[in-house]
Each structure stands twice: as structure tokens, then as C-alpha cells.
TrEMBL record:
Transmembrane segments: 28-46, 66-86, 107-131, 143-166, 173-193, 226-247
Protein's recorded name: Transport permease protein
Keyword Cell membrane on entry: yes
Entry's localization field: Cell membrane; Membrane
Protein origin, superkingdom: Bacteria
Family: Belongs to the ABC-2 integral membrane protein family.
Organism of this sequence: Streptomyces hydrogenans
Keywords assigned: Antibiotic resistance, Cell membrane, Membrane, Transmembrane, Transmembrane helix, Transport
ABC transmembrane type-2 domain ranges (all copies): 27-253
Length: 253
């Protein structure tokens, strides 16, 4: 029993320590947990964003931007916040030193994944609540479908961040690679133009990207349906591929 509980206790201790360190990073907290809601509020204050559009099936642009802001939280957590932290730990030899202790390096990796996933999901919930309270955006019509799509999108975002970290030898490289990937993912998530408002050909192309598929799945669930099989398949495909890249290329030192 002692041999089983010791690693569990050590993992919990690592999670608590990492949570305290994460809470001391105001920039990360702002960009992951606050900036998506700020983005939504800024857009919602523009009168034209709150007007129903026939081109959008009677919906308003602000209605489309709630899922976009949710995805923005995932992008910030997966690409901007997590990779530099993990790459920094590896660069400073922390992961290598942990391999000689009862706390395996995997515990630190798990803690980072849990913390950034939790922060992104809390941010997503805040976006949904503020969208409803401030701008009358309807709550997701299919809560179960929306939750499933959100969890799958979160897994894909973390897999992308882990792949960036695995392919980056240093913290500076991880930051540079994360930034380079950041802008294409912002586009496919619909931050500049909602995916649903894109021209048909461009939209069909974008929906084969991980965040484009996630945008489609969240939008379908928000309207009361189930995420389409194509969107789910694309999200699963990218999550599996990126996870495989991260596992194959990740080095503890």
C-alpha cells in the first residue's frame, strides 16, 4: 500500500506546487483566463455586432463570437502559456533531476496539463456566462454535445502545445514556435472572421484544421444539435496525430 500511495502523494504535491507557481504568473492568468472575456466584451460593445443578420440566419455576430472566445482561451493555454514553461523546465535540467527522485518527470508534465486545461475550461465558462448576462447570448442548446466538443477541443489544444514543446529545444524556441503557430490557429478558430461567416470554399478548408473543426462542433452544439461526425473525426484525428508527435519527440533533457 505504501508503495502505491507514495507516488500519488508526490504527484499531488507537485500539482499543488505548480498551481501556486501558476497563480503567481499574472500575465499567464490574464491571457488565459481574462483576455477571452475581454475580447468578447469589446466586440459586444460594438452596436453592429449586436444586430441580427440575415446572412447569418438571423443570428448576431456576437452570438458567433462566444465559441470563438472559448477557442481563444484554449489557444492561449495550449500555445502561449504551457510550452515555454515545460521547455524552460527541461532547459534548466529540472526534469532530468526529477528522474532521480521518487517524483517522476511525468508528474510535472501531468500537473502542467491539468492546470492549463483547468484554466482554459474556467475561462470558457466565464465567456459563456458573460455572453449570456451582458449580451443575451443564448446558452448552448445541447449542453452535453457542447461539453463533449469543448473537452475534445481542449485535448487537441494541449496536444498541440505538447507537440510544440517536444519540437523545441529551449524556452526561447518554444516561445517562437508557439507564436508562429499562434496566428494561423487564431485565423482557423475564427478570431478575425467567424468560421460561419467565411466564404463557403474557405470555410470548408478551414473546417479541416483542428480549431476550424472545433469551431464547427461548438457552433452546432450551441444551436441545439450534435457536433457533426466530420467535425468530431477531424478533431480526434488531429488530437491523435499531435499526441503521437509529442510522445515520439519529447525528451526529458
Amino acid at each position: 500500500m505504501a508503495s502505491t500511495t507514495a507516488p500519488v502523494s508526490a504527484t499531488r504535491a507537485v500539482l499543488r506546487t505548480e498551481a501556486r507557481l501558476f497563480a503567481r504568473e499574472p500575465a499567464a492568468l490574464f491571457w488565459v483566463m481574462v483576455s477571452p472575456t475581454v475580447l468578447l466584451v469589446i466586440l459586444g460593445l460594438v452596436p453592429s455586432m449586436r444586430e441580427a443578420s440575415p446572412d447569418l440566419g438571423g443570428r448576431r455576430v456576437i452570438d458567433l463570437y462566444v465559441p470563438v472566445a472559448v477557442l481563444f482561451a484554449l489557444i492561449m493555454a495550449g500555445l502561449q502559456a504551457m510550452p515555454p514553461v515545460l521547455a524552460g523546465y527541461r532547459e534548466r535540467g529540472i526534469l532530468r533531476r526529477m528522474s532521480a527522485t521518487p517524483v517522476r518527470p511525468a508528474a510535472l508534465l501531468t500537473a502542467q496539463l491539468v492546470l492549463h486545461a483547468g484554466a482554459a475550461l474556467v475561462s470558457a465558462l466565464l465567456v459563456i456566462v458573460v455572453g449570456r448576462a451582458a449580451f443575451g447570448v443564448a446558452l448552448p442548446g445541447n449542453l452535453l454535445g457542447y461539453a463533449a466538443a469543448l473537452l475534445l477541443a481542449t485535448g487537441g489544444a494541449l496536444a498541440l502545445g505538447a507537440a510544440v514543446c517536444a519540437l523545441s529545444r529551449t524556452q526561447k524556441v518554444a516561445t517562437a514556435v508557439g507564436t508562429a503557430v499562434f496566428f494561423p490557429t487564431m485565423f482557423t478558430a475564427g478570431v478575425w472572421v467567424p468560421v460561419q461567416a467565411m466564404p463557403d470554399t474557405l470555410r470548408r478548408i478551414v473546417e479541416f484544421a483542428p480549431y476550424g473543426a472545433a469551431s464547427r462542433a461548438l457552433d452546432e452544439a450551441a444551436r441545439g444539435g450534435w457536433p457533426s461526425a466530420v467535425a468530431v473525426a477531424v478533431m480526434v484525428f488531429w488530437a491523435v496525430v499531435l499526441t503521437a508527435v509529442a510522445v515520439r519527440r519529447f525528451r526529458w533533457e
